[in-house]
Structure formats: C-alpha cells, structure tokens
Amino acid sequence: MIATCGSARRSLARAFAAPDAGPVLLFVEGAAGLGKTHLLRELAELPGTPDVARLWWRCGADGGRPEPVEGEVWREPTLLLVDDVHRADEDELRRLRRVLAGMEPGSAAAVTYRPEELPVPGMPLGGSAMTYPFRLTVLGDRLAPWDEDRVRRAAAEVLGESCTAEAVSALRERTGGVPRAVVDLLAMLREQRPAFTGTAAEVAAAGVPARLAELVLSRTYAVSPAHRPLVWAAAVLDGPAARDELIAVSGLGAAPGGDALLRALESAALAELGEGRYGFAVPLAADAVRDTVPGPVRQDLHRRAAGVLSRRQPVPWAAVGAHHRAAGEYRGWLRAVEKAAESAAASGRHQEAITLLERTLATPGIPPQARARLAPLLARNAVTGLRSDQTVEVLEQIVRDADLPPAVRGELRLDLGLMLSNQMGRFAEGWRVLEVAAAELREVRSVLAARAMAALVTPYWPGASLDVHRGWLIKAAAAADDSGDDAMRTAVLANHVGLAMSWADPEAWDLVERLPVQSTDPACARQAARGLCNAADSAVWLGFYRRVDGLLTEGRELATRSGAPYTEHSASGTRLLQEWWTGQWLGLAKRCEDFVADTADMPFLSSDAYVVRGLLAVAQGDWGEARAWLSQRGTFGTENLPVPLGATAAGAVIRLTLARQEVADAAEQARAAWTVVADKGVWPWAAELAPWAVEALARAGDTATAHSMVRDFARGLGDADAPAARAALAWSRAVLAESEALAEGRSDGLPAAAETYRKAAAAYAELPRPYSQALTTECAARCVLAADTEGAGESAAAGAGEGRTGPAASAGPEGPPNPTASAIAELESCAQHFTDLGAVWDATRARALLRTRQPARKGRPPGRPSHSDQLSPREAEVAQLASSGLTNREIAATLHLSPRTVEQHIAGAMRKTGALSRRDLTHRL
Question: What sections of the sequence does the record tag as coiled-coil (predicted)?
Fold first, then answer.
C-alpha cells in the first residue's frame, strides 16, 4: 500500500541503460514510516534488468554485512540495496564506503536512511567524507507524506463504503500523511466494533497504532528527565507551537527550556514543522505521549497551556476552554466556551458553535447561571445554521428547568419552536411552542416577542388558515415597531413578503423592494436574504419563473455574505423546483440526489429535492422509485410537508393511482389533500393538485365534489396574478368538461373540452412550462380524436361509400382544415417533446395513442412485419415500461393493450434478449 517513488526507478535505470553506463548511487531520505524499505523492495523488481544481481545490506542487523573482497561485488552488473544506513556503526559505515567506492559501470546502489536519526546531520555515510569515483553519478531523493488523494485511495481499499470525505480528511490530519501510520490506523478502524461508519470522531477515538506509539515513546524517554517536560508540553499543546510557547508550558524557564528543545530535536522526539514551529512529525503521536504524563503534572501543563493560548491573536477560545477543563478549571472552561461560540457565530461558523455548545450543555452539573448564558447562544446558532437533533433534545430539557429566568426560558422556547418548524418539519409541535413563547415574551422582551409573532406569520405550515397568519402579522408589526430594533423590523418584513407573495397580494413586489439588501448590519442582511429567498420560492409557486433567477442570485449572495447557511440551502431547493417546471431536466435527477446526500442530517431541508426527484420518476415510468421519493423515503411524515409541496406530491401520487386504475383510492387521496389546501386558504398552492384531484373525483362519479373543487379554486383565486394557478384552473375545467362528456356519451362536448385544454396549454407556454404544456396539448388531441371516433361511428350506416379513407384523412385542397389531422400532428409533437425532456412514460403513452389512429405506412408489404431476433417497436416499448417497474396491468393501460398482449410482448422480449427475469431484462436492454 506504500507508493513507489517513480524518480528512484528512473535514476537507477540509467545505470543499466547501456553496457558502458557509469555507476549510479542513489540516497533516499525519509522519516520513519514513509516507506523506505518498501521502496527498496520495489526497486529490487526493477523492470528490464533480468541479468542484474540483487544484493541486500541491512545495516545494524547482526553487525552488518561482512566486508566483501574488494571488487567482488561488481564482477557482474549488481543492484545493491542498503536499508537503514542510520543504524550502522562506524565500522560498518567504513566497510560500506569502501564497497560503494568500488562500484563499476553497469552497477547501481540505493541507500535509505532516516535524516532525523543520523549521527551527523546531512551525512548518511558518517562523519568521514567519502571519496566518490569520477564516473559515479550521485543522486538524492526524498520521500514525502501522502497527499489527501493518496490517503483516500488507501482508505477506500480498506474501508469500502465507509470511506467518507470526512474520514479521509481526519486520517490525513491525524497521521500527517505518513504511509505507515495511515496503514496501521486503517487496520485499527477496520477491526472496530461496532463497525466504522466514516466519522471524524471515530478516527479521533481509534487510538494510536502500537508501532507509532513505541517509536515516539522510545524517542521521548531517550530525552533526559530534566528535559522531558518540553516534549510533554508539545503533547499537551497538540499542534505546531513556537519555541517560547513550548518553554512557557513546560515551566522549565528560558535557558533550560531552550536546551531541552535542542535535546528533543536531536533525539527526534520533536521535529521542526515549519519556520520556528515545533511539534510531533505525526500529530497522532501526541496522544501516546500525553497519556504517559503523570496526572498532576498534566493538569499543570494544561493550565499553563490555557494561559499561553490566551495570548495568541486571534485567541483559539475552543482550545483554551479544552485546556481549562483538562486542568480542572471549570469556570474558565465555561467562559472560554462562550467566547468560542460567539467568535464562531460572528464569522458564520454556526455548526462549529452548535457542536461545541451541545457538547458543553450535555455535561452534567453545569451551573444554572452558565446554562442561562449558553443555551440561548446554542439556540440562536441552531436556528441560523443547519439541523441538529441533539440541539432539539438539549433545548427541550432546558426549557423544563424551573430555575431558568422567564425571559431566558421564553427565548429558548422561541428558538426551539423555530427549529421544530423550519429544521425538523414538526409543524404542529413547533406552532404550539411558538404560541407559548409569544405569550411568555410579550411581557418581558418585546424584541423576542415580535420574533415569535413573526414566525407565526409564515404560511407554509399545514394547519392555521391564511386569516390567522394575517392576524399574527398585525401583532408582529406592532411589536417590532415598539422594539425599535431594525433587524426585527426586517425579520417581520421578510415574513410579510412570504405571506403576501403566497396569495399573490398586489403589493407583494413593492414589499420585496423595501428589503434593506444594502444594510451593513449582518442581522438585517440575514433577514433581507431570507426575504429575497422567500420571494423567490413564492414566485416559483406562482409561476413567475423569469423573476426567480434574480431573486435567488441576490438572496444567496447576501445569505453567504451575512452567514445564513439555512437560507442558502433553502434557496437551492427552490432552484430545483424552478428547473423541474421550466424543463431543465438534463442532470436534474443527479442534482436532486446530490442535494439529498449533502443535507442527509437534515432531510426536511431537502424535501424540495425529494419531490422533484419523485416527479421525474413518474414521468420516466419508474413508479416504484417515484412513490419512494414522493414519500420522502420515510425520513419524516409527508403530512408535515409545507402546504404547496405537499399538494404537489399529492397530485403526483393521485396521478400514479389513476394510472393504475385504482380510481376509488385516488378519489380518497384527492379529498384528503384538497382539505389541507382549502383549510389553509392560499389558493395558488392548489395549482399542482387541482387537475389530478378533479380527474380522480370525476372518474369516481363524484362530479358534485369535482364541480365544487373547480368553483372553490376559481373563487379563491379571484383576480390574483398567479399565472401557474390560472393555467391549472383552465386545465381543471377541461378535465371536468371531458369527464362529463364521456360519462354522458356526448361527443359534441369533447371539442369544447379540447379548446379549454388548448387554453391551458397556451398559458403554460407563456410561463414557460414545457412539460405541462405537452400534457395539456396531449389531452386536447385526445378529446378531438375521441370526438372523431364517436362521429365516425354515428355516420357509418348513413354515409357509407362517401369516399372517406379513415379518420386521419385530411381535407381536400379547397376544404376546411381537418381537426383530426391537426390533433394527430399535435400528438406527434407532444411525443417528441416528451422524448426530448426524458419523459419516457408520457412519450410511450402518446405514441401508443397515435398508433390507434394512424393508417398503415405506404410501401409496407401486407402482413405482420418480421423482426426475427430484433425487438419489434411494440416489444421494445413494453420491455422498457416493464423494466421501469410497471405491472402488466399498468403497461396495458398506458399502451391501450390487453394484459394478455402485454404478457406476450414481455415473453417475446425476454426470449430475444436472453433475459432470465423482468429485472434481468433491464440490464439486457
């Protein structure tokens, strides 16, 4: 697993390149563990040198190699491999120098050594200068630690799927990239029980490999007891430190400390890691040394380390706190933790602050005063940053503490409510907690009371109606004005933007313009960023896709600049929704999956990505995957989805259920989903649900409820400027008209339904929404073709022999346009659009409908075409849908075939491809 040095291979190869080539001597320098012996083994296998003798010389082993007769080694081409020359005594070095001086052309030698253990620094062959022959080429090479990519490859070989980026980074940091340390630590991780899962914490807790521990302890205890505290000081500081810092922590004083540092460097117990910075060559070695320091001495070292680090600029407060705690100074520890968290939050490192505060507050015995200071700091960082389940658990415990001051409890309850709602997706609990917080804070802290009320303005959660949110807006605005706090006013304005945009308030865009995006106050800037991203999200649901880019770009830049990672991530979800609706599907599934992986510790934040990925799976015919994605893969209850997203997911599920001919179930799903939207009263959010819900109820025979849905949808929209909802309303009306015409057997009602579908398609084209446009155009063509079929049947007896060649026949050159021919052309265009988007299921369905209407192609011989061992077009379509996971009944409904015919086509496809099962058919295709 230790890499060969390519330059060493090339250097030695020169000696054997030609018969008269001069000898080559290669010195290879490398600290302990960098792989010198392994390199020599690989050089022994030097390609292209089958006639070259290999001779090993292991220095320090049984007194070294006996002195050969001068010239004996070089009678034939020889490769001399000298290992660990730093171990050789003076007699052995003298013999080795004599042998190397006698090298003849056609021979070479490689000599390895540890530079830190040479008796005379820089002179691997001892203090006596060697006389090198004139023709001898002397080269030097230096082995280096592995970089992160090489550590990753080694880790992947050992850890497999547990080889995470986090683990690789921790491995590289802990081992310094020293190959031997990497390999040994990986072996320890592989044997861990429970099994290693890929976290940095597991790497840190794995311990020190025995080989490394023995090496560093032998070097440490080679230092005299008087000088040893300086090595202990380096172990306690656990990182590169300046000379004066090491001496101060050791407590030795200037002169003895300086002497101790020299002795530690001479024994290789410590190394110079950079100009004027000293420590252990392998960072992990510090753990082994620190564990051997007597307890009272170690506490004194930690106390002095806390003082030394407090004088650095900037002060590493987290490390200062850790030293105070290790020294038993708990008051100093808690003060340093508070400063560390404040510093991290100020620079936007919220997750770092959260982790530190969680760990601290989870410690038993924290004094109430300290809890009252640290808990609000944790809550504020958690609301701004990303999810932590442990944060919620800690806050839930703390708010039950009767000793907390009421103002502190109210603030903690506020942040807990925000986390439950925004980060955890537990809306019902979050709403109740926020209502209590608003009541608790009303009398004690007006700013925080306004913040709680502002949170209750946000309309996305299921439950409270639009009027309830408007009522909280009035209260929040008044409280923010009373507080005189600009950041609080901006927070209320940001939520006002989201509320107004959601129901298409005509003043919404003016409110967006009022957001203080140029504010130099980070708190105001974070709230303004949130307002912009709220506006972008609402614009997506309303259908203003061309405005979304500018809002998202400005909002994300402002969120990054002001340190609001939660806002940044939510904006990424909005972008995925926009790409879905505007037809930017190339690579969209991968982008969704990557986003889900990136936010794995906070699945609610990636709910947009789950839904978009599910919608793609529906269109692609991958229905098993579709249901899994639309249900958020079980990460949390879909009943807790934001209302517009929940309505969208419900619409897709209803569509799937209808495609499977489970009409009664689809109708029940439609009623339940519609109730959620109707209770909320934000009618633009019904856009992605309405067409499918209306179809489900109409097909189930509940036309009264279907009419009521369309009527309520239209009334709720009123004059609102909501383009996507307007198009969906036209689609819903067309669905109702088509369903009633078919149910009543009135073909004369189908052209009107087709015209309404075309109005919807035109509206979607304006947005633009190519997929929805193609779906509604397909529906319009279907209505025309159905009306033509009915008309042809009614006139067959009376008009037989009138020269009509089929339903697709076009009008004569002077006749009126033929609606059927236009519908077929529309259907062909739809099939192509579906194909271009990647909507496999839709394209297959459209082409199946086309084949029921198109006449046989001219020039084809009579009878069924022969496809021998090639799949026929119909077999290919059936096989493709079968490999996507559709059942025979679902394929039959899509392609207008009988289940028996589908079964025959699948059997034919399996026979021709050699597939052993439907699953195997996927790979064969």
Answer: none
